[in-house]
């Protein structure tokens, strides 16, 4: 009887709060927040003024819902590979707590809500771009590119930058040059960001049989690629003031931020600091850049 009681206790289902916490973790909230911010930045660039609340709010909600849905689907699809990666222990635990069926159900509901919001408040073009971004990330990148090529981070930058096109088209006009420059910026940011992570956890990626650049090529090749891409990224950020979509004040900020990011990467890649530090600098750099663009357009006269 004692053994049976112990078995029943061990099989006790998780509490609702545990399931909610697990779903929140699987939604990758920090990544999703960055996705929403990129859309808001693109909407600001397209409007060249503070975006109207009637466009900004549905744009943010649509990107938050579909971004969280894509993250959850990604976690379920990559569950077998993720189990081999020590850095994803908490994500694997969350997947076990919530269960694939519930996760996919919540993801479907969020995806439906996001598409419905876009269709109802933003129009057909942003809705199609939203769907294209979700399909590109969950199917093209996750299922085909990531397991097959070390350049998946470059090719996967296309769906990763689609939120910019969603935000830009939410203004009611086709994405202009400023939005396309922002799209290029986000595409160029994603590869070095991922390669820094791959360098930090290359043993995990090796165990998961994923041909990331440090494994498929070499560590030195990855270091050179990171520094090259960050330099290209810094140059791309200066296209906004060069084309009149931002001021010289923003240009100075972008140049300083880009040089600082490049310096952080160089310092870490030389072994003088942890690679995770450069990875965190990458996230901070993107947030600073988006904030600088929004502040420049909304508050600095030109």
From TrEMBL:
GO terms for biological process: heme O biosynthetic process. Coiled coil: none annotated. Keywords: Cell membrane, Heme biosynthesis, Membrane, Transferase, Transmembrane, Transmembrane helix. It is a multi-pass membrane protein. The chain crosses the membrane at residues 31-49, 55-77, 98-121, 127-144, 151-171, 177-199, 226-244, 250-270, 277-300. Its EC number is 2.5.1.141. It is an enzyme of class 2 (transferase). It is found in: Cell membrane. Carbon 2 of the heme B porphyrin ring is defined according to the Fischer nomenclature. This is Protoheme IX farnesyltransferase. It comes from Geomesophilobacter sediminis. The lineage of its organism: Bacteria, Pseudomonadati, Thermodesulfobacteriota, Desulfuromonadia, Geobacterales.
